[in-house]
Structure formats: structure tokens, C-alpha cells
Amino acid sequence: MLHFQTHLLRPEADWVVFIHGAGGSMVTWKYQVEAFQPVFNLLLLDLRGHGQSQGIQPEYKAYNFDIIADDVLEVVDHLGIAKAHFLSVSLGSVVLQKLYEKRPELVDKMVMAGGVFRATIAIKLFVHSAKFLSYFLSYPALYNLFSLIVLPRHNHRPSRRIFRLQSRKVPRQEFLKWVALYKDFFRMLRRFFDRELQHLSLVVMGGQDHIFLQAAQRFTAVHPNAQLRVFEQCGHVCNIEQYDRFNRVALDFLLEKAS
Predict the structure, then answer these.
(1) How far is CA 236 from CA 21, 65, 78, 122, 242, in A?
(2) 122 SS3 class
(3) From CA 114, how far away is CA 123, in angstroms rounded?
(4) What are the start-end ranges of the E strands in 160-241?
(5) Which end of the chain has the smaller Cβ count within 10 Å, N or C?
């Protein structure tokens, strides 16, 4: 089973499940735990091959998003969680999209920070470059390069540092399996973009997110149940870079009663 951590408020409190992105870990959410803990039960986990989730059984030669989502569902079912809000960041939003596809009754509201929604030219170039360069560069060098591409500015440095530190815990073979998800990744994005979104969703993007912002704008423009908040002077990992603002916006959204 995946390595996970819970923060329990009370049995009847709503749950919030946190899903980090590629190369990350539950540390990605370190600025959210204190803010959300007085309101919700929290579940944080390390995805397969990340953080302390090493040697997860069964082993697979290659991954797809069914495998990744089933890992999360195993923990959720183990804890007896019947319904929860979900927070995701970056590629974690695609894992969340798969969870929504597999078990929509589990999902209450969704918050997607730095969400990934459509295979734009920029995203295709980014993904295919990662696949190509993985044959020539060491994993640390490749991750450092792409973290600089995604988070190039001076104000992105805290996010870049946290992700580089977390990425060191990902073995090279695990990294290559995640890179190889790209075919399933594009299929997943197409299905989710074209499917009617029944659940209320909040998409929080940085105004300086030059790779993923355009796709998020397109997604929220065609899905009435999805609302977009753009943080100016902020990069891809807005839950770290502007965590106070992110926490306020996300909590207001989750606590707002449906009209």
C-alpha cells in the first residue's frame, strides 16, 4: 500500500485527499496542512515510486493511470472514506481526473492547482522533450532542467527547490515509468476535457504558468461547473509560492454551500 498520513479532526468531519504531482511527495502540501487541519480530516499520500512509497506491490514493467488511481483508491477504501474533497497539483490533476472517471461518487469538490487539461502545443513539446532527453540525461539533470523550464523566474525559486529536493527520492527506473505515461496521459486529457463535468471544481493557476495556463483557460471556458482563479506574479506551483492566498481561496470554495 502507498505510504500515507492522516490528520483526524473528528469522525463526522469531511475528508480532503491531497494528490501531489510527478517528482513530488506529500511534502508538496506542507503549507496546506496547518490551514486545513482545523476544518477537515486530511489524507496525504506519496504516489507510487515517490517519497516513502517505494517497492509497492505488485510491481509493473510499465504504468498507466489505472494503476496510479487504483493505488490511491486502495488507501481510500482501507480508511473507509466514502466521499471526499480532492486537492491536486500539476500532474496530480490528471490522477484526479482518472479517479473521477473511475469512481465519481467518491468525489465531492475538486481543487486543481497548476492543473493539466489539454494537450496544447506547449504541453506536447514539453512531454515529448522529456521522453526524448530521458535517453541521454541522468534523472537529476533532467529533472533540474525541466523544473527550470516550468519554474524559470526568481519568485519560483522556493517551489523549484522543494520539488528538486523531493525528486531525489524517486529512483531512475520509477522516473522512466512515469515519463512513459505520456501516451495514456494524452488519452486521459482528451476524455476528461470532452466529458461533461458534474462536480464543482476550482482551478487555481499562476499567471506566469507559461506552459499550462492556456489549457486551463480553455477547460474552464467550456465547463460551467469549473471556475478559474489566476494568481498574478505566480508560477506553476501556486499552492507553495502563494500559499496563504491559495489556502484562503481553496477553503472558501470547499466550505461554500451549494446554492
Answers:
(1) 11, 22, 32, 14, 11
(2) helix
(3) 13
(4) 201-206, 226-231
(5) C
**In terms of residues, how long is the chain?**
259
Q: Which structural domains are found in the chain, ordered by start? A: 4-255 (3.40.50.1820)
**CB-neighbour burial class of residue 78 (10 A; exposed 0-12, middle 13-18, buried 19+):** exposed
Placement of cell 502540501 in the chain: 29
Indicate whether this model's pTM tops 0.85: yes
For 112, the 3-state DSSP assignment is: strand
For residues 108 and 104, give the distance between their C-alpha atoms in angstroms, rounded to a whole number.
8
Per the listing, cell 523544473 goes with 147
For residue 25 the three cell numbers come to: 511527495
Is residue 259 pLDDT above 70, yes or no? no
pLDDT tens digits along 139-185: 677 778 888 888 899 999 988 888 788 877 888 788 888 878 877 88
- The contacts of residue 30 (CB under 8 Å, 6+ apart) are none
- Which of 185-219 are b and which e, b meaning 16 or more Cβ less than 10 Å from the residue's Cβ? beebbeebbeeebeebbbbbbbebbebbbbbbeeb
Within 10 Å of residue 138's Cβ, how many Cβ atoms?
10
Could you give the count of Cα atoms lying within 13 Å of 156 in the half-sphere of its Cβ?
A: 21
Closest alpha carbon to 230 in 208, 201, 250, 200:
208
Residues 188, 56, 92: CA angle, nearest 5 degrees: 30
